[in-house]
Amino acid sequence: MTTTLTNQQVRLAARPVGVPKDSDWQHTSEPVRELADGEILVKVIYLSLDPAMRGWMNEGKSYIRPVGIGEVMRAGGIGRVVASKSPKFAVGDTVSGVTGVQQYWIGAADDKAAAFYKVDPSAAPLPKYLNALGMPGMTAYFGLLEVGQPKAGETVVVSGAAGAVGQTVGQVARQRGCRVVGIAGGKEKCDFVVNELGFDACIDYKTGSVKDGLKQHCPNGVDVYFDNVGGDILDAVLTRINMKARIIICGAISQYNNTTPVKGPANYLSLLVNRARMEGIVVFDWADRYPEAAAQMAQWMKDGSFKSREDIVEGLENFPKTLLMLFEGRNFGKLILKVADEQD
Ligand SMILES: NC(=O)c1ccc[n+]([C@@H]2O[C@H](COP(=O)([O-])OP(=O)(O)OC[C@H]3O[C@@H](n4cnc5c(N)ncnc54)[C@H](OP(=O)(O)O)[C@@H]3O)[C@@H](O)[C@H]2O)c1
Asked: Which residue from 96, 139, 221, 333 could staple onto 311, CB 3.0 to 4.6 Å apart?
């Protein structure tokens, strides 16, 4: 069965300088080989498009090795096992793991880099497993609760508020009884986080001053800042932090396509004045506790107190241009690429 299949793939052709260009990618196709003992074949259904992908395309030391030139681009995905020579997964199982930007993943069922695990398609719609019940949700949940340590009555500010991580940060903080103020680009996104997700307020950084917005919406200062964007917004929040504030450095998307060095915070001495703390996070550090967070958020989803929004674009071949949506703020919710129909 497997030998008649063809696998379309997107590979990294060159290391981008600034915003990735079409020529930084190569579209390839190859026949799907026969399975060896212990292997599975996974048909990819949805791919997670993440800002971190931009970092994985660069050479240099990071928390994960860069994608090599000529390699299939790394991506998390959800797929279905369509052939199996492993007792670990059966044909028909739905799995989540690092599938890469391709139609089929083939390899050992216990491959550590792919890290496949079963998901229950009847418990939640599959895209949720790439959003609140997947990596972005885990990032938000543990980053906020473990590093941010928000207490009831405190003010939590989150940038990238309408995005995958930001949506969950704000809602988990609300669950903890905090005042939550988002920062997002545009009225539609701001209205969404306030009216749909229950944030207390949202600052539209594209049409007004973040400093003024913080003054207005955080009258008691900022106790926790969950930073997804870095740059000028981080600097503005630093001017409003409280004594012993916690700043979680989750990402700095405003800096990822820089051709000049990353812009550090000019106002960092506010940490000194306020005896505050700024700490970076990498979601994988909580990998052994993912089930705990997923169960909690699935419960909140079930009782209607937690929502998540996905933005789904179709077609593997559209990967290069779809990825750019993240850096232009054109995604509204967790950005997902649909590669195949769920029922196929
Ligand atoms: N540390 C970790 O383990 C970890 C794990 C997952 C994600 N992250 C980081 O978390 C952040 C959010 O990721 P996500 O997956 O949730 O993405 P996302 O928020 O769903 O999408 C990216 C959003 O970033 C905003 N943005 C883009 N350029 C910007 C700029 N120049 N200034 C301000 N905002 C800008 C846009 O929203 P607006 O329209 O609102 O501008 C865009 O929609 C990223 O920095 C990512 O690298 C870190």
From this structure: 333
